[in-house]
Amino acid sequence: MASILKIKYFNAFWNKRIVDTDLTPPVTNTASWPALEWNPPGYPTYPNNVDINAGYYYLQWMIEESRILGGFNNTSVDLGARAYANEENINQQHRFNSIIYSGLYNSRTGFNQTNVFSVGEDITKSIDPSYGEIQYTYASDNDLTILQQNKVSRALIDKDALYTAEGGGDVTSTTLVIGQVVPYTGDFGISDNPESFARYGFRRYFADAFRGSIMRLSRDGLTEISEYGMSDYFRDELKKISSNFKTYTVVNSTSYTASPLTTNTVPLDESSDDIEIGMNVTLNGLSTDAYVIDINYITDQVTFSKALTFTGKTSPIVPDVITFTKPVKDKIVGGWDIFDKQYVISMQIAPVNPSQTLEYETTVFDESVRGWPSRYTYNPSNIFSLKDTYYTTFNGKLWKQHDEISNNNRGTFYNIYNGSSVQFVINDGPSLKKVFQTVNYEGDNGYEIGSFVSDFQQIDPNIPLQNPPIYTNSNAYQDTTTVVKSYDEGYYTDFEGYPKRAGFDRKENLYVANLINNSAQRPDGILYGSQMSGIKAYFATVTIQTDSSTDVGGLKEIWSVGSTFVKSS
Question: How many beta carbons lie within 10 A of that of residue 183, not counting itself?
Answer without folding.
Answer: 15
